[in-house]
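[Discussion] Sanity-checking designs against the backbone

I'm trying to build intuition for which residues belong where. Below is a structure token string of 324 positions. I'd appreciate it if someone posts a full sequence so I can compare it with mine line by line.
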């Protein structure tokens, strides 16, 4: 079994913990949407929507998040029989659908400064056009992706889009707050698949620094959030990438990949002077560099940009991945 995912994809954060909670072995493939890896022809032929995650078991391929979760549950039940594992109840499935109805794309993008969002959007469109030229047989599907990217930019100019998304989120969280007043978890006192769907929503709010507004202001959700962060599946799938300094470590590589071309163009005249010729060569051969050389390069980039700007830029631009 194979899972194609990315740590900052919310739907990936819903599926991967299900595999961990059920103890199912799988092969993990990171597909970074910020640098357009989900647009590579090999992945695009498997899933022309280019969305994550994708779950593959032999020839069976699933794209829908809820279908993947329920499929994982069926595998777990079949593998151990009826000993300790049961299928999700109707109430659990109802919560799965209710939580999945809230689309985080526009909410996330509208909380990212325009200059960072537009930079990544433009980069992705360039990647799509390049892939279109490489794979003419997929040109029509790639063209749909370009058109969709422009449609998203147009919708983001409409203030009602954020308003509707926010109202939907508030309604969902208020309903969760009332439910958690009666039970420890979302459906009773046992952890279920419904909780797996809710946790990434709360993690997204924390990542966007909106936890005070949406989580802390709701005491039952705040207590619940502290409880679910202790689960091993959360620590492995989300906490590993989000807690404290770890999110900066996750984002640095992506930021550097995005900016390397711009730096080459912007500072080429500066770098080619005298002894900087060697550095230009290293930049052009970055894929062959050791991690020590890459670290020196990253520090040099931070020096050129200014440390604060460097950290702010890669943090904001990497958030774009979570909305893909």
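Best answer:
Here's mine. Compare freely.
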């Amino acid at each position: 079994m194979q899972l194609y995912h990315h740590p900052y994809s919310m739907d990936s954060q819903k599926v991967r913990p299900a595999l961990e909670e059920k103890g199912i072995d799988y092969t993990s493939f990171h597909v970074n949407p910020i640098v357009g890896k989900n647009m590579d022809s090999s992945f695009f032929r498997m899933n022309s929507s280019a969305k994550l995650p994708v779950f593959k078991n032999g020839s069976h391929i699933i794209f829908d998040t809820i279908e993947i979760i329920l499929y994982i549950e069926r595998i777990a039940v079949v593998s151990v029989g009826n000993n300790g594992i049961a299928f999700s109840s109707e109430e659990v499935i109802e919560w799965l659908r209710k939580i999945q109805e809230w689309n985080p794309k526009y909410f996330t993008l509208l909380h990212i400064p325009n200059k960072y969002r537009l930079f990544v959007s433009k980069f992705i469109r360039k990647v799509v056009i390049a892939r279109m030229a490489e794979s003419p047989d997929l040109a029509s599907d790639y063209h749909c992706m370009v058109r969709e990217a422009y449609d998203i930019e147009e919708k983001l100019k409409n203030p009602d889009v954020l308003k509707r998304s926010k109202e939907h989120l508030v309604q969902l969280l208020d309903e969760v707050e009332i439910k958690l007043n009666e039970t420890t978890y979302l459906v009773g006192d046992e952890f279920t698949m419904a909780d797996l769907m809710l946790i990434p929503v709360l993690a997204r709010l924390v990542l966007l620094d909106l936890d005070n507004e949406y989580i802390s202001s709701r005491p039952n959700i705040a207590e619940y959030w502290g409880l679910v962060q202790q689960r091993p599946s959360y620590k492995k799938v989300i906490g590993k990438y989000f807690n404290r300094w770890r999110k900066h470590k996750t984002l640095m590589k992506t930021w550097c990949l995005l900016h390397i071309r711009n730096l080459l163009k912007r500072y080429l005249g500066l770098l080619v002077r005298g002894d900087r010729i060697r550095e230009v060569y290293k930049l052009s051969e970055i894929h062959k560099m050791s991690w020590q050389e890459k670290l020196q390069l990253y520090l040099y980039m931070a020096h050129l940009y200014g440390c604060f700007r460097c950290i702010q830029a890669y943090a904001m631009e990497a958030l774009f991945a979570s909305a893909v």
